Each structure stands twice: as structure tokens, then as C-alpha cells.
């Protein structure tokens, strides 16, 4: 399979996950997988019960992370995932905020 421009470019997505996503290890599982995939960015809980995350990396890898967000860790019940594409900022590492 040949790399298309979409798969070989660096992208940034801003993701908002809603449902039962706090108190279920969602942030920790996100850090674990994003780090394993070599993505940069961050994840945090929001006061309204959602989880917010930013992922930067290769397009195909970011898409893989977005697919995982729709499921999350075993205890999570994901109801909705909103994805907004943004300009990459060249973040380094992945952290919980």
C-alpha cells in the first residue's frame, strides 16, 4: 500500500468525548495509547463531564486514535465524539492536564 498525502502528513485534532467518560480511567488509557502510538498532545476532564483531548501526529495514526475514542477503556460508555481539525503546533510528548 502506497502512502497517500493524507497518511504521510502531520495533523492535529481537538476532540470532545461525552458519555460516562470520567472516573473510568479514560484519561490514563488515552495517555497510554497515544504515547504507544507516538502521538503528541494532552487530555483533560471538563467540568461538564466530558473529556477533551488534542492529538498531533501522522494522519493515519491520529485517525486510529479517534476510532479508539469512540470506544475508550472498558468501563467507559461513550455517547458522542466531536472532532475538530486544527493547525498542528508541534507539541512534544503527551500529558494529562
Descriptors for this entry?
disordered N terminus, 97 residues, five-stranded mixed sheet, 24% helix, alpha+beta, Alpha-Beta Plaits
Describe this structure in words.
- By secondary structure, the chain is of the alpha+beta class.
- The chain has one domain (22-96): Alpha-Beta Plaits, CATH 3.30.70.
- It has 2 helices and 5 strands.
- It has helices at 26-37, 59-69, and strands at 10-20, 40-45, 51-58, 77-86, 94-96.
- Strands 4-1-3-2-5 form a 5-stranded mixed sheet, with helices on one face.
- The longest helix has 12 residues, at 26-37.
- The radius of gyration is 13 Å and the shape is globular.
- Mean pLDDT is 93; it is low at 1-5.
Strand content: 35-45%
Overall residue-averaged pLDDT value: 93
Low-confidence stretches: 1-5
For the biggest sheet, the summary is: 5 strands, mixed
* CATH architect. name: 2-Layer Sandwich
Number of strands: 5
- Overall geometry comes to globular
How many structural domains can be distinguished in the coordinates? 1
Give the N-terminus to C-terminus distance in angstroms: 37 Å
SS content category: alpha+beta
* Total of DSSP H or I helical runs spanning 4+ residues: 2
CATH class: Alpha Beta
Q: Helix and strand succession?
A: EHEEHEE
Radius of gyration: 13 Å
Helical content band: 10-25%
**Which strand order spans the largest sheet, edge to edge or round the barrel?**
4-1-3-2-5
- According to CATH, what is the topology? Alpha-Beta Plaits
